[in-house]
Design goal:
Elements lengths: L5 E5 L5 E2 L15 E5 L6 H4 L29 H6 L9 E6 L5 H14 L4 E5 L4 H10 L8 E4 L3 H10 L5 E5 L16 H18 L2 E7 L11 H5 L2 E6 L6 E9 L7 E7 L2 E4 L4 H4 L10 E8 L2 E13 L8 E4 L3 H15 L6 E7 L11 H13 L7 E3 L2 E2 L5 E2 L4 H10 L4 E5 L9 E5 L2 H9 L2
Parallel strand pairs: 4-8, 4-9, 5-6, 5-7, 7-8, 15-16, 17-20, 20-21
Antiparallel strand pairs: 1-2, 1-3, 9-10, 10-11, 11-12, 13-14, 14-16, 18-19
The protein binds thymidine-5'-diphosphate and magnesium ion.
InterPro entries: AAA+_ATPase (IPR003593), DNA_repair_RadA (IPR004504), P-loop_NTPase (IPR027417), RecA_ATP-bd (IPR020588), Ribosomal_Su5_D2-typ_SF (IPR020568), Ribsml_uS5_D2-typ_fold_subgr (IPR014721), Rubredoxin_2 (IPR041166)
Pfam family, one: ChlI
Keywords: ATP-binding, DNA damage, DNA repair, DNA-binding, Hydrolase, Metal-binding, Nucleotide-binding, Stress response, Zinc, Zinc-finger
Length: about 450
């Protein structure tokens, strides 16, 4: 056997170097290179012909009569929706998210619901003691669910234990960064350990047909910690997002071999765990008795689901010639600057001596340019202190020329707005009308600002 070569793997991006360096040559992170047990290269493949000596594998026709395993519905509709209609037996799913966002809580609830419906569910925690997990289950009101718990970090121990009984329908590993495989050297959490542990667990899941869910930690820039390869090894990658200071959480598929990536699941973190939110619009709209200037409502789209969000703008006039502040929460600040420039150049509305603050309510993050018109309307309404008429939703993309451009899925967005009691929509021209909602369309941004200013 040839001697394994020393190599160094960047813990941030997974790139390999032959010498240790203070900075990764690929991703430029500092102090991320760690010595890694490299692959042992045997000369076997070189000496022998690979076409002989192996075992034959069974080749199955696409039209095989054998029934395909059915998706398992967990009973948590928002979770099932995000993963494409239920867990696929034998599949591996990776779920990432900031610490404390609720990954453990969500998966404990999923495991409990499956177990309550008679499916075997095992929850292995490498981070908490079994009693801590039980305590959490009690708090969630799931103390009676027949989930089997283990506190373990050795992949060999876990697989040995699982090998003894019938395989569970669901195996949750919380988290993959705490797992340790003795097939390979290195501390838990290093790239090679994460990869080796995940490989063993995924192989077990595929062999036994159980659905595997791995929890993955997220680095400060939002990627799942450890190598990108982890994302290639699994079938589905989910992100669990939200602001920790706000209640709502969104479960979103980033990659899905068994379904689309355009559906989301919406939850709210309550005192008794995560509650499903079947009607997310209600979460982001504040109850307003009267019309307030600077506030508009935009019908956003999450995958194929419309979500109504409230935009709030505040302007403060400065007396002196000081540089005014511009601040945006939940909206891109360069897009805010662009809209301010278009309002000035095309509509003659100047914010030059005004501080501008823009906030998307509920901690929601908007990146859809279809919200341009709603943002512009909020800004002008704030500046002029003229409220937008109640019951109005606004949508449309604004071009640098001041032209209002059409947006995708207008009908779907308007339908949701009508459902929630909105009566009026300000849209780009040629918008498809929707039942129960009166549509006013605008070709130019200046037409809309004239309307707000009562010109
Ligand atoms: P947790 O699932 O431990 O997060 P993660 O596994 O992603 O790190 O969630 C922890 C947070 O959720 C914690 O700040 C407390 C909060 N929480 C509730 O608000 N209600 C609950 O019922 C539970 C169990 C947790
Ligand atoms: Mg956790």
């Amino acid at each position: 056997m040839a001697k394994p070569k020393k190599r160094y793997v960047c813990q941030a991006c997974g790139s390999v170097a032959t010498r240790w360096q203070g900075q990764c040559a690929d991703c430029a992170e500092w102090n991320t290179l760690v010595e890694d047990a490299g692959a042992v290269v045997t000369t076997f493949a070189k000496k022998h012909n690979l076409q002989s000596g192996g075992r034959t594998v069974e080749l199955v026709g696409l039209d095989s009569e054998v029934a395909l395993p059915e998706r398992m519905r967990t009973g948590i509709a928002e979770f099932d929706r995000a993963i494409g209609g239920g867990l696929v037996p034998g599949s591996a799913t990776l779920i990432g998210g900031d610490p404390g966002i609720g990954k453990s809580t969500l998966l404990l609830q999923v495991a409990a619901r499956l177990a309550q419906s008679g499916q075997g569910a095992i929850y292995v925690s490498g981070e908490e003691a079994a009693d801590q997990v039980r305590l959490r289950a009690l708090r969630l009101g799931l103390g009676g669910a027949p989930v089997r718990l283990a506190a373990a970090t050795s992949v060999r121990d876990i697989l040995t234990t699982l090998g003894e009984g019938p395989p569970p329908a669901l195996l949750v590993i919380d988290s993959i960064q705490t797992m340790h495989s003795d097939m390979i050297e290195g501390a838990p959490g290093t790239v090679s350990q994460v990869r080796a542990s995940a490989h063993e667990l995924v192989r077990f899941a595929k062999e036994k047909g159980c659905a595997l869910i791995l929890v993955g930690h997220v680095t400060k820039d939002g990627n799942i910690a450890g190598p990108r390869v982890l994302e290639h090894m699994v079938d589905t990658v989910l992100g669990f997002e939200g602001e920790r200071s706000h209640q709502y959480r969104i479960l979103r598929a980033v990659k899905n071999r068994f379904g689309g990536t355009d559906e989301i699941g919406v939850f709210a973190m309550e005192g008794k765990g995560l509650e499903e939110v079947p009607n997310p619009s209600a979460l982001f709209l504040t109850d307003r008795a009267e019309e307030v200037s600077g506030t508009t409502v935009f019908p956003a789209l999450e995958g194929t689901r419309p979500v109504l969000v409230e935009l709030q703008a505040l302007t403060v006039r400065l007396a002196s010639g000081a540089t005014p502040r511009r601040s945006a929460v939940g909206w891109d600040s360069s897009r805010l600057a662009m809209l301010l420039a278009v309002l000035e150049a095309r509509c003659g509305i100047s914010f030059a001596s005004t501080e501008v603050y823009l906030n998307v309510a509920g901690g929601y993050r908007l990146s859809d340019p279809a919200a341009d018109l709603a943002v512009a309307a909020a800004l002008v309404s704030a500046l002029s202190e003229r409220p937008i008429p109640g019951g109005t939703v606004i949508l449309g993309e604004v071009a640098l020329s001041g032209e209002v451009r059409p947006v995708a899925h207008t009908a779907l967005r308007l339908k949701e707005a009508a459902k929630l009691g909105f009566e009026r929509a300000w849209t780009p021209r040629n918008a498809e009308p929707a039942d129960g909602i009166e549509v006013a369309s605008f070709e130019q941004l200046s037409r809309l600002t004239d309307r707000i200013l009562g010109r």
